[in-house]
Amino acid sequence: MKQDLNVFVLSDGVGETALRVARAAFIQFPEMNTTYTKYPFIKNDNQLKSVLELAKSKNAVILHTIVSKEICQVINEFCQNNGITYYDILNPIIGTFSQMTNQTPLRKKGLLHELDKNYFDMISAMEFTITNDDGQNPKGLLEADLVLLGISRTSKTPLSLYLANKNIKVANLPLGPTTNLPEQLWDVDKKKIIGLTNDMNVLLKIRRQRMIAYGLDPNTTYSDEDEIKKELDYSNQIYSELGCPVINVADRSIEETAAIIMEKLNFNGYQRG
Q: What single Pfam family name could you report for this chain, choosing any that match (predicted)?
């Protein structure tokens, strides 16, 4: 039987950083039945007191990214006095960097999500990527930072949107033996093109499940093994003609595939360790 665990995620901002860290940590314990509750925009007021009291009553673990010394002290003292397990995510790092650089931190909340140029660049990249999804705008292929190619069910759209969130303007184009490739594709800088592929067994499973989800017969041309092989052969032929890198997305998360792409094309100076 799985053990229940309540995790309270506190932040004086939107709380995404703390939540990601919490999930990354507790996913290592699959036998735990973990429930996450996020409390953003925490202030030193009645809300904070009620959250702390609730954590005490539920024997919850607290993870927080509070930068205010005053609020941190309230949380830390309450947890220590009441035997609550807690983890201060940011301040140990901030303290170490402050000592290393001999500089005083701003301790200003929400800096990561301020509406600066970087934020508006991300919005622009998202808008571009949506406009250029699934080959809607062939001219956009020449304006994109990255062009993704692939047959159906190779994660083109979700991968494009994930990369757009990294300020990368992405255009994606579906491939198939019966599709007409836009002439603009051959004028794109080959260094900006990535071909996506997938394993036959994975494609069969995904496509049949998709048909079932639509209430249709799973045994269609779309999910026929011979037809999928033709699509894979065709896409491999195009990749060979273009001379572009090819990534197999089978058993890879969107995040992992995106990391490989960003490393290959050195987007945002990205390098994997």
A: Kinase-PPPase
Token pair of 119, please? Answer: 């934020």
User: Structural domains in the chain?
Assistant: 3-112 (3.40.50.2300), 117-269 (3.40.50)
Structure tokens at 260: 């490989």
DSSP assignments along 141-195, one per residue: GGT-SEEEEESTTS-HHHHHHHHHTTT--EEEEE--TTPPPPGGGGGS-GGGEEE
Which residues fall in the annotated binding site for ADP? 150-157
Torsion angle of the four alpha carbons 113, 115, 120, 123, in this order, in degrees rounded to the nearest 10: 50
pLDDT tens for residues 20-62? 889 999 989 988 999 999 999 888 888 899 999 999 999 999 9
Q: What's residue 120's pLDDT?
A: 81
- Give tens-digit pLDDT for 56-78: 999 999 999 888 888 989 999 99
In the annotated binding site, the residues are: 150-157
Considering just the CA atoms, what is the radius of gyration of the chain in Å? 24
List of residues 6+ apart from 148 with CB closer than 8 A: 156, 159, 160, 170, 171, 172, 173, 194, 196
* CA proximity to 86, closest of 172, 8, 190: 8
Q: Is the pTM of this model over 0.70?
A: no
pLDDT (tens digit, 9 = 90+) per residue, 110-135? Answer: 555 554 677 788 889 999 999 999 99
Name the burial class of residue 201, with classes exposed (0-12), middle (13-18) and buried (19+) by CB atoms within 10 angstroms of its CB.
Answer: exposed
Residues 6+ positions from 169 with CB-CB distance below 8 Å = 124, 125, 128, 129, 132, 143, 144, 145, 146
Confidence of residue 273 (pLDDT cuts 50, 70, 90): very low
